[in-house]
Amino acid sequence: QYATTGCSLTLHHTEKPEHEDICEYRPYSCPCPGASCKWQGSLEAVMSHLMHAHKSITTLQGEDIVFLATDINLPGAVDWVMMQSCFGHHFMLVLEKQEKYEGHQQFFAIVLLIGTRKQAENFAYRLELNGNRRRLTWEATPRSIHDGVPAAIHNSDCLVFDTAIAHLFADNGNLGINVTISTC
Q: In what residue span(s) does the SIAH-type domain sit (predicted)?
């Protein structure tokens, strides 16, 4: 299906649907969490889409920044999103709050590369919560936006913590997450 965009694989018809789900040449979907934006396009067009359609997303420059999630006590499912630019690439930082069951909320913090899975393997990221003589750190390889936030959460390939932990590190309902990107 994606031969016109560069895929050169020839597969048996039974293997085709599975490959098309993970094909690097399939169009990229808008990486913003939530299902409201249905945009799809080439990797080269993703940043321009984000800058025009999602103007509220803040971009910080540098490999070591603070991602500030404000009002973490807002009820229901909430997403905080920002961009980090360093090493000639753009990374999407996402903090997602979900209600797992009545009264029990979990937070998921994820870093995605606006790039391919192969490019993502060249980087590592560290998320760190600090405060009150406590430190919580998660280090991993960013995922490509081709994989997306739901896949990272489904595989628990992200920093996961509950409301009680969030309150240990929050200041007046705001949570600062130190984000460091490095090359491998």
A: 1-55
Using the structure block, give the residue that is written with the tokens 């396009």: 41
pLDDT digits (tens, 9 = 90+) for 109-143: 999 999 999 999 999 999 999 998 999 999 999 99
Q: CA distances (Å), 159 to each of 28, 94, 99, 123, 128, in order?
A: 24, 11, 16, 17, 9
Distance of CA 184 to the CA centre of its chain: 19
Judge whether 70 and 174 are in contact, CB under 8 Å.
Answer: yes
Residue 86 Ramachandran class (φ > 0 left, ψ -120 to 50 alpha, else beta): beta
Those residues whose C-beta lies under 8 Å from the C-beta of residue 101, and which sit 6 or more positions away, are none
Q: What is the third-level CATH fold of 54-183?
A: 2.60.210
Rounded average pLDDT over 52-65: 95
How confident is the model at residue 50, as a pLDDT?
94
Residue 37 CA to residue 51 CA, distance in Å, equals 14
